[in-house]
Amino acid sequence: MRIAIYGSRRQEEAAPTVAVFLDELRRRSVDIVMHRKLYRHLFEIIPQALAAVGTVTDNSDFEADLAVSLGGDGTFLRTAMWVGQKEIPIVGVNTGHLGYLTSITVAELPRLLDYLASDHFRIERRGLIELASPALEPHFCPYALNEVAISKDESASMIWAEVMVDGVRLGAYRADGLLVCTSTGSTAYNLSAGGPIVQPTVNVHVISPVAAHSLAMRPLVVDGNAEIKILPTGRTPRVRLALDGRSTEIDMGTEIRLVKAPFSVLLLQPAAYTFADGLREKLHWGAE
After folding, report:
1. Which of 96, 112, 174, 214 is the most exposed place for a label (fewest CB within 10 A)?
2. Catalytic residue chosen out of the listed positions 73, 153, 176, 251
């Protein structure tokens, strides 16, 4: 068995538990590779625990049976892009704050192999959005697990976004920005923008304006297999694109095409854990 580990570089409190986990993996003859940035961070704290750990980078063509994400939701999103099209199952270990995408606590990490052996987890397939634009830089990763956000480049102006779904004109959004999110991303930026919460395994996308300048433009749920085309216009020469927080700029007036990505993120979830559990425990759904 081979396990690939990715994580944020803020693991001072979790490092002793991570060391126990690495020792347990070695004891059971599990091959370990770790992202080089995390390796360098942990080497300053627990160097002895890294003796048999190999390193890989963002561009390494590695293989693994399981990926472990150490951090919060932002780290999980980066892990998903690191794994990319390999479709390696990912288990999120919460060493951050909310941890909506994480599956276990850091205290449970040393028991991960036992969990795997006892069918503690099930695999959920989560869809991604793929972005296509002629102005996109070649090295920019065009996939998003949460959302694609289109926003104005200057705070004093707004954008117009002409939107088409499967070749049919939907309308022109006049707003500070526009989001297209997956069902997984419905509880992220979309929720803050007033969009609906969607069960994360449902194959839909949500189009949500950010601070819409018209009461007639509300969030809309569309088929996850639909092609969405967006043509942003405005007074500024550039518009900002952000995919799960990774941002770039393109010329205003450049068409943006969004489709369902040809691969999925495989997320390990506790078998008994439900969508409603997540709402109650992490979003305090129905709290009085």
Report:
1. 214
2. 73
